[in-house]
From TrEMBL:
InterPro entries in the cross-refs: CRISPR-assoc_prot_Cse2, Cse2_sf
Protein's name according to its UniProt entry: Type I-E CRISPR-associated protein Cse2/CasB
Residue ranges, annotated region (Disordered): 180-199
Length: 199
């Protein structure tokens, strides 16, 4: 049975607030992490716990209360932090959905459709973690940051049964498959927050 969403508590922080705090905290600390810490974070996966101390010191922040308890939530944070470490220092771009980042700046220059569909269809935590890691490595190598707040429902949904992963997957697909602009280039548009993470 899925763990209940912490948003049911009137005192629990909203998921978008927690993820944005996590993004800011990671960006602030990334320059302070030594290479060994970043490498350990990049290698994290749900199958390879217990994770290093840098992970636990990060997720036990008081402002994350309600969103780090339980194995599923811990696994979700492991996937998120591994991806952020992979993409450091170019991590977050507000308003750019994961689908927009993965489709690339021009027609034919993005993440392959079969790999995207494997990511969006992965419903087992281990399979999802593997596919998400592959996607973040591609974004890192192509310098394509994306909005982690928009992406969080997919991660928490697949890894912890929280938030609306299916709606997030559909939003990513819409962004990826929408037509390119004139000349096959990417139009300068931003996507809204997906349902399931907005208040």
């Amino acid at each position: 049975m899925s763990a209940p969403s912490p948003t049911s508590s009137p005192t629990a922080p909203r998921p978008d607030e927690v993820i944005m705090a996590g993004v800011h905290a990671f960006q602030e600390r990334a320059g302070l992490f030594d290479r060994g810490a970043i490498a350990m974070l990049r290698r994290m996966s749900p199958r390879q716990g217990p994770w290093p101390g840098v992970f636990w010191s990060f997720i036990t922040r008081p402002d994350f209360a309600g969103w780090t308890e339980g194995r599923g939530a811990e696994n979700a944070w492991a996937v998120l932090l591994a991806g952020m470490a992979e993409m450091a220092p170019l991590i977050h771009e507000r308003g750019t959905g994961l689908g927009t980042a993965l489709r690339g700046p021009r027609e034919g220059g993005g993440y392959s459709e079969p790999r995207l569909l494997r990511l969006l269809r992965a419903d087992r935590p281990d399979a999802f973690a593997y596919e998400f890691a592959a996607a973040t490595r591609w974004c890192a190598s192509h310098r394509r940051p994306f909005d982690w707040v928009q992406t969080a429902p997919l991660v928490f949904g697949r890894m912890a049964g929280r938030l609306d992963a299916d709606n997030a997957a559909r939003r990513i697909a819409r962004d990826y498959f929408r037509p390119f602009g004139k000349g096959g280039s990417e139009p300068d548009t931003a996507t809204d927050l997906p349902e399931g993470i907005a208040p």
